[in-house]
Each structure stands twice: as structure tokens, then as C-alpha cells.
Amino acid sequence: MPSRADTFRKFIAARPDDPFPRYSLAMELKNHGSKEEARATFVELEQKFPDYIPQYLMHANLLVEMGQRDEAVAVLRRGIPVAARKGDGHASGEMQSALAALE
Fold this sequence. Notes:
This protein is an all-alpha fold. Helices cover about 80% and strands about 0% of the residues. The protein is built from 6 helices and no strands.
């Protein structure tokens, strides 16, 4: 039986222009303790889909878990203006709160 991560990888292959399967894979890896692989998936997601807002807070949370506070701050600082530009005040506010807690 294929794992959920394998299923998400198949979705990515089938729909490479859709950010959601890549985000789902990153979250699945994070939730199962594959933090380095999750981190790499988030980095790839941001490179390919910089306007995909949900990734920023989740990536920052992962980095905090990994003890990479400065990198988490950098991710949030990149995500806040994206959310603002896209009119997502809720996500922007969540990221601003997370950033304030880290600074």
C-alpha cells in the first residue's frame, strides 16, 4: 500500500503546476518527522509558487521546530508582503504575530 507521501508525489507528477499537492507533501513529511525532506519540499514550493500563501507560516513553524529561528524569521518576512499583496489579511496577521513572537 503506498504511503500518503507517495500519493502526493504522484499528484505532483500529474499536476506539476498545482502548488497544493507539493504543500500537502511538505506537511505530510513534517507531520511524520521527516523534517529535512519537508524543509526541502517547502523550499522548492516557495521557488516554484511564491504566491502560495499557506506555505509561509507552516514552513516557518517547521524551521522553529528545527531550531532555525533566523531562517523562520526570513520566511515570514518574505510571506507577509505576499499575503498583503494578495489581500489575505488573516494570513498576514498570523505571520506578523508569529514574527513578533520570534523577534
